[in-house]
Each structure stands twice: as C-alpha cells, then as structure tokens.
Design brief:
- The protein has 2 domains: about 210 residues, Alpha-Beta Complex (Spore Coat Polysaccharide Biosynthesis Protein SpsA, Chain A), CATH 3.90.550; about 80 residues, no CATH class.
- Helices cover about 45% and strands about 20% of the residues.
- The protein is built from 10 helices and 11 strands.
- Helix 1 links the parallel strand 1 and strand 2.
- Helix 8 packs antiparallel against helix 9.
- The protein is globular.
- The termini are far apart.
Amino acid sequence: MKKVSVIIPVYGVEKYIATTVQSVLDQTYKNFELLIIDDASPDQSIAICEQFTDPRIKIIRQANRGLAGARNTGIRNAQGEYLAFLDGDDLWLPEKLEKHVAHLEKSPTVGISFSRSAFINEAGQPLGTYQMPKLKGITVPHLLCRNPVGNGSAPVIRREVFEAIKFQDNLYGCVEDFYFDENFRQCEDIECWIRIAIQTNWEMEGIPEALTLYRVNSGGLSSNMLKQFYFWEKVIEKTRSYAPEVVNRWEPLARAYMLRYLARRAVRLQDGSIDLSENSKASVFKALRQNFDIFAKTQL
C-alpha cells in the first residue's frame, strides 16, 4: 500500500482548519502522512492543529512564503509516492484518497488524478453548485483556457511528476528545489499544470465524483479579481518564454475564456454583499467585449 503525503498550507484559517484536518484523518485510505505547513500564520490556526494527537501529523514552520512556497516546503519534506494538496479552508470526502490511489494504480500513464468539486459556503453548507470539468483527453489548450483540474485541493499527484519539472533557484539565501513558482501569489497551480503538460508526457485525468468540497469565501474577492487577472497574464508571459508557439496559437482564445470568467464573477458580486468598484467591473466588461468575437468563433 503506497503512502500518500497530504500537504496543508496554513495561513489565517483558524475558522476552518480543524474541520479540514479532520477530513483528512477521516479518510478511508489510512497510509498517509499529514504535513501541516505553518506559513507564519498570524492567528490561532497552528495552536488548533497542535491539539490533534494523530502520529501521522507533522507540523513544519517557516517564514511566510505564500501558498506556492508552503506547497514547495511540503513537497521537499514529503515521504510518500503520491502527493495530495488540501487548502486550509477546504474539505475532502472520506473516500477521496482511496479513489485517487486506485485510479493512479490502474492508470500508469496518468500523473495527475483530480476530482470534481462541490462548492460550500463559509459555514460549510452546500451551495448546490459544482465544478464539472473535462475529465479525459486533457491537452495544453484545455489547461490554458479552462483549467480542468479546477482548484488546488482537487489533485493527487505522483512524486515523479514533480521530479520531472523541478528547477533550482536561490530566493531565500540558499539554493533549493522548486516545483510551484513562488513568483506567483495567485494562479500558481495552473502555471504548474501547464508546465507539466508541456514539459512531460504525464497525462491528467479526472474522477467523475465530487470528492473535494471547495469553500467560497467572501473575504478579499473584490480585490482578488483583478489580481487574478494580473497573475494570469504572468502565467501567459512565462509560458511564452519556453513555449512561444503554444501561446501564440492559443492565447487569444484563452484570454477570451478568462475574461468571460471574470465578467461572470463581476456580475455575481453585484448582489451587494461584496463591494466591487465600478471601475473594476467596467474594465473587465470592456476587455470581454474586445475579445468576445474570438470566443464566439472558436471554442474547445
């Protein structure tokens, strides 16, 4: 029975972290280690984690390096053949790991096994909506345009995949191995998936069940929307640096998909619960109009 290393980055999630950790401990697949990465969390999150006594839990502390940095620290310390990521406010259904391990065991060419996700609100109640992405035949254009993996709490990944795309850098006074790019404070996961798809032969394939519960938080959404677009632009820029032919072919359609997503999100935020500036909404809608003809003519 292969070991799974579960990596939970922790920063400012004291309202949720206990149920997140418990959702890992409740897994039907028992051969795992749980690496909790304290990314210099300013609240009581780690004190809450310390109350769990399961010997499979290890808490690793570091100076704040962001989500990508916490995931990288987890990968460097992981002992498992498979690696799974769970954000500190999301949840897993009990059979999550068992089903992904079975999927990977029977599919030797699949490097990333992901699930569909169900959305929950801040109180943990189901919203009745789901991420229902494409599950098979995933190519680079699909990742550029739609991100079938969906979110960082959905995939379980073979260690060999990360070994194939790691790079070295000196960002903090010593040379380290990197997997997720720590220059990205958002979109770091999609940047990594695109790099895997371009630079390796590993396949990505999904499980048709919603095994991840993805929490929709209101805090910070108004500012994060345009930040997300900024980092998405950086993903395109980085990908162009090593795969210009791919970006030149698919960037217009990918941009139209991204702007449609942001426009829909801006509309949802008009319910009055979140204050999104009129300038922000106008900029998204203007960009969408400028690119929608591309989207209308060509879709994946």
